[in-house]
Amino acid sequence: MWPTTVCLGEVSGLDIENAKLIYKAQLKTDLQGSAYLEMWVRVDGGQYFSRGVNDQLQGKSEWKAIQTPFMFKKGQKPDKVTLNVVINGTGTVWVTISYFERVIVVQKTAAKLRSWLCLS
Prior knowledge:
It is a single chain. Strands 1, 2, 3, 4, 5 and 6 form a 6-stranded antiparallel sheet that branches. The protein is mainly β. The chain has strands at about 5-10, 20-45, 45-50, 55-70, 80-105, 110-115.
């Protein structure tokens, strides 16, 4: 059985470079399988992705925050970011409170700035 990908939204016009963009969401599952977040990023005509396979939910779970990061190098600015949930198996996935967190890299130290984006 192939995974099912559900698009939760697309975002353009993000002013970010030389930073880590973290896609976070709260998920609850009742699955025979697993679910994780996926972020596709279009930069300079190329498509790149980040999959949160190390932070996935399996089976039946209560609400839990999961995430997947993407690192932008200096000079890389996204044209578009697509936010997905990938479901491997059958059942139900509930999603709430999807947002981004931007971590700016400054001389090997990180300062966190939260940019909230509600996708409800």
